[in-house]
Design goal:
This protein is of the alpha/beta class. The protein contains eight helices and nine strands. Helix content is 43%, strand content 21%. The structure holds guanosine-5'-monophosphate.
Length: 199
């Protein structure tokens, strides 16, 4: 751990289907010492999702027990399921001198900012338009029509909260948006651990 280095929490939010997952992967590829916090969720796994890699898939009963025990740094109910970030994971990574990337919803992001104002950097990923978002969600074929409608309604709510974030990245072009996201992370981290410098 670099002396005097206070670990950062890069918190990415944005509506479902906006491309957060892909941007997150690009950011993680770009930096050493930046790790992804794997959330717990009560929603069932989607095809191809792996336990402990994408999420920790747990029952609602277990989730609520963990809430009761104060295990979550933040948690929220999103699209009808619970999602939460384990405090122990984040504390372990920060103590190891790593920075942490969270991909969580707006409610969770605002909780993290309130808890750790000097360490949390909130980055909102915004779609070019709600119509484009809807098109991407349908194209993805991961959700039923009902769930798509819920996600679009939630997206409209989330977009209204973008001004509470430190940065807004418009995902009009994946390559450009990924570069912008990496530049934001780079700014805060200085030159610590950027891969292109090492290779
Ligand atoms: P999905 O079901 O599409 O994987 O995720 C649905 C939403 O839950 C996304 O907006 C995602 O960012 C959010 N989410 C994922 N993990 C967490 C978490 O640990 N906490 C909170 N508050 N939201 C989360």
């Amino acid at each position: 751990m670099k002396k005097g280095h206070e670990g950062k929490l890069f918190v990415i939010s944005g509506p479902s289907g906006v491309g957060k997952g892909t941007l997150r992967a690009r950011a993680l590829e770009g930096f050493d010492d930046l790790v992804y916090s794997i959330s717990c969720t009560t929603r069932p796994p989607r095809e191809g999702e792996r336990e402990g890699m994408d999420y920790r898939f747990i029952s609602e009963q277990e989730f609520l027990e963990r809430v009761r025990q104060g295990q979550f740094l933040e948690y929220a109910r999103v699209h009808g399921a619970f999602y939460g970030t384990l405090r122990s994971d984040v504390e372990r990574d920060l103590a190891a001198g790593l920075d942490v990337l969270l991909e969580i919803d707006v409610q969770g992001a605002l909780q993290v900012k309130q808890l750790l104002p000097s360490q949390a950097i909130l980055i909102f990923v915004s779609p070019p338009s709600v119509e484009e978002l809807e098109r991407r969600l349908r194209w993805r074929h991961t959700e039923t029509e009902d769930k798509i409608r819920v996600r679009i309604a939630n997206a409209k709510e989330e977009l209204l909260q973008a001004d509470k974030y430190d940065h807004v990245v418009l995902n009009d072009d994946l390559f450009r948006a990924a570069e912008e996201l990496k530049n934001i992370i780079y700014e805060y981290r200085g030159k610590v651990g950027i891969k292109s410098e090492i290779l």
